[in-house]
Predict the structure.
Amino acid sequence: MLIIHCPYCGDRPELEFSHGGQAQVVRPADPSKATDAEWTQFLYLRKNTRGLFAERWRHLRGCGRFFNAIRDTTTDQFVVTYRAGEQPPAIGSGGAL
Amino acid sequence: MGNHAVKTTAPVAVDMSWLETPASTARLSFRGNAAAIAAASTAFGVPLPTEACRAATVGTRSALWLGPDEYLLIAPESERLAIIQGFVRDLAAHPHSLVDVSHRQNALIVKGPHAVWLLESGCPLDLDLSRFPVGMCTRTLFEKSEITLWRTGTDTFHLEVWRSFMEYVTALLTETAHELPA
């Protein structure tokens, strides 16, 4: 079973986690002034990166917290996980930290 | 728990000495920031653990870390109202949430030399003492049901199971226990 490192609880089985989609999607600063195109971008349009991808994950059946992860979408390898609000660590080519 | 029918290939009597269903208990779900957690420790009389996945017990009261700002407080049923009133009094200055979940879930005690073996039949965690020491607690899964698992002794586990999943969890554990004599 895939083991995912929860930034709060430590290494835990994949079953306890749920995927939360692309990370760092920024909500329009002034929502009432955002155009339809900007809302569309915010609500619906997501990247479909091949390779390293920043995602939100939630330790749903554990501490319940959302956190960020950088995962390789081709190999399903979790390169690093970090708490929401923290800056992602710099990642070199090939996923090396 | 009700009467549940467990499918077996043969009507074998199962040793159920590993299972206990404790008496009625007060359960409170507490959430708050660091200041509220400190105030709650005083109000509840148990220092709420700040280390992840750890439980603290003082006398008959226990506080289980479930998340960085979330705790399950367990106490005798008779103290429920007094605890709630104490929080209302002592935590008035701290934004927090205290929800009475006493009847949302029930407890199971799984104990004995086969406790780990029984639980690992449905729980994906490594329950070896080095990875899941006495005093560790966490929400996790048992098969498809969410449970709160708390190791109260080397061979003793306290499970909190939501009432509607209780029959499911108990039946699966009992089914597994059929293999014990083998």
